Amino acid sequence: VSRLRVALLTLGGAGSLGALLALSGAISVKASSGHLSVTAWMLDLVKVRSVVTRSFAIDVPALDQPELVRVGAAHFERGCRPCHGLPWQPRPLVPAHMTPHPPELAAQVGRWRPRELFYVVAHGIKFTGMPAWPALQRTDEAWAVVAFLRQLSRLDERRYAELIESGRDTATLDGERALEGELARCGACHRPDHHAVPRLAGQSAAYIRATLDAYAAGQRFSGVMQTVAAALDPAHRAIVAGVVTAASAPTDGRTLDPATGLVAAGDPARDVPPCASCHGPNAADRDPRFPRLAGQPAPYLELQLRLFAEGRRGGTSYADIMRPIAERLTPDQRREAALAYAHMAPGGR
Ligand code: HEC
Ligand code: HEC
Ligand code: HEC
Predict the structure, then answer these.
(1) Hey, which of 262, 325, 328, 330 would you mutate to test ligand 3's pocket, going by the most ligand atoms within 8 Å of its Cβ?
(2) Angstrom distance (rounded) from CA 333 to CA 328
(3) What value does the CA radius of gyration of the chain take, rounded to a whole number of Å?
(4) What is the C-alpha end-to-end distance of the chain, expressed in Å?
(5) Of 62, 72, 111, 273, whose CB count within 10 A is highest?
(6) Cα of 290 to ligand 3 centre, how many Å?
(7) What pTM did the predictor assign?
(8) CA 254 to ligand 2 centroid distance, Å
(9) Position in ligand 3 atom list of the atom nearest CA 314
(10) What confidence tens digit (pLDDT) does each residue in 252-306 have?
C-alpha cells in the first residue's frame, strides 16, 4: 500500500510540476525557432505509430487507374501544392515558416503504405497544420489523391502540367470557347473518359448553378468540388454554370432511347415513382432544377444513388425530393437505373 502511495504522490508531483511549467509560460510556442531535434524525433514517432496502428484495417481499392490519378492531381494542385509545393518548384514561402513545415512530398511518400497515406490525407495531423479532408462524409475521395501521390516521384514538370490541364480535344467543354483561368481547368476532371465524374455539357444551367452554390455552402459533400466551388464568388459561379452547360453534349447521333423498366414505371410495390417523370426521357415540362441523367457515366450515377441512400449526398434545396426515393431503391435497382440512363443518348430530356 505504501508503495502505491509513493507512486501516486510521485505522479501527482510530476503532474503539478507539468502544470506549473505550462502556467509559468516557460515553454516556448514560437514557430520561428523550430523544434529541438529530440522534440521533432518524438513527435514524428508518435505520428508514425498512430497512423500505422489506426490505418491497419483499411482496405485499399485499385489505385492504378489513370482517371483516379488525374482527379487526384487536379485536387493536389488546389488543395495541397500551396503548402507542400512540388519537387521542381521553389518551396512555397509562407508555409515554409510553419513548425513543423509541410515537407515536399515526393521524398516522403515512400515511407508510407497506401492505406497510411489515405489515413493521413483523410484525417490530417493534429498540432501540425496538416488539414483533414474538406468533406468528412466523402473521405472515399481521398483515394484519388493517394493514387496521384504514388506517381509523384516519377513525374516531371511537363507530365504534371498535362495531368492538371484539360485536354482541349477531349474536354467536355466546348473547345471553341476561350475559357480562362479556373474555368479552363474544369475539364481536367470533367472529361468524357472519366467514369467517376459527371458530364456538364448539356446539363441544365439552373441545376449546375444551384449545385455549385450547394458545394460552396457545404450543403453538397465533396472535398474535391467544395474546394473548386468555394474558390469562385457567387457571380462567377453563375457565369461558369452558363458556360459549362452551353457546350453541346457530345452525341453519337442516336435519338433518346425510350425509357423501360424501373425508369419508365418505377416500382409501385416500394412506392418508387417513375424516374422518367422528373429526369426524362420525355419529361416535357420538367423543372430545370431536376438534373438530366441521360449519358452520365453509370458508376457516377450509381455512386450518387448510394450516397443519397446513406445520407452522404447532400445537394440543393431540391435534394429532399430525391433522398427518400433513393432510400427505397435496392442496390440492384440503383445499378439498373444507373445503367439504363448511362446507355441513353446524352443531353436529352
Ligand atoms: C495548410 C498547409 C497544408 C496543406 C493545405 C496540406 N498539408 Fe500536408 N502537411 C502539412 C504539415 C504542416 C504537415 C506535417 C509535417 C510533419 O509532421 O512534419 C503535413 C504532412 C503531410 C503528410 C505526411 C508527411 C510525412 O511523411 O510525415 C502527407 C502525406 C501530407 N501532408 C499530404 C497532404 C496532401 C495530399 C494534401 C492535400 C490534400 C495536404 N497534405 C495539404 C501541411 C499541409
Ligand atoms: C479536381 C477535379 C475536378 C475539377 C477541377 C472540377 N470538378 Fe466538378 N466534379 C468533380 C467530381 C469528382 C465531381 C463529383 C462530386 C460528387 O460526388 O459530388 C464533380 C461534380 C461537379 C458538379 C455536379 C454535377 C452533377 O451532375 O451533380 C458540378 C456542377 C461541377 N462538378 C462543376 C465543375 C466546374 C464548373 C468546374 C470548374 C470551375 C469543376 N467542376 C472542376 C471533379 C472536379
Ligand atoms: C419527383 C422528382 C424525382 C423523381 C421521380 C426522381 N428524381 Fe432523381 N433527382 C431529383 C432531384 C430534384 C434531384 C437533384 C437533387 C439536387 O438538387 O441535389 C435528383 C437527383 C438525382 C441523381 C443525382 C444526379 C447528379 O447529377 O448528381 C440521380 C442519380 C437520380 N436523381 C436518380 C433517380 C432515379 C434512378 C430515379 C427513379 C428511381 C429518380 N431519380 C427519380 C428528382 C427526382
Answers:
(1) 325
(2) 9
(3) 25
(4) 81
(5) 72
(6) 7
(7) 0.93
(8) 26
(9) 18
(10) 555 667 778 999 999 999 999 999 999 988 765 578 999 999 999 999 999 999 9
